[in-house]
Write a structure and sequence with these properties.
4-stranded mixed beta sheet; alpha+beta; 4 strands
Amino acid sequence: MLNKLMKTTAVALMLAFAGTTLLADTAAEIKTRMKQRLSKIDSFKDQGVLGENNQGYLEARSKNEDAEKVAKEENDDRKKVYEAIGKKNNSTAENVGKLRAEKIAERSAKGHWIQDKEGNWSQKK
């Protein structure tokens, strides 16, 4: 429960930073979609099917069409948020994603797959 609360809070913060750059209805739509996907993402992470890469995006760890679809949808929304935050802070989506990846790795649940800065995958201990 705490993990879900932290993730929801993180999504809300990301969107709050991007709020002035994204159109209000677009930011609300993104936030809604991200919240709706969260339980599926957590389930796929718990199964080891999805992991968090070092660029701030989800990555399939094994072949699963449903997980790949969810990851693509989530990554598309994350990219929009990262671009908006980057623009607001005179940075790039890539830089924002890398910084976000570090925070995601810190907050990831035990057993979830994360990729370090060098590109190596491991399960969080």
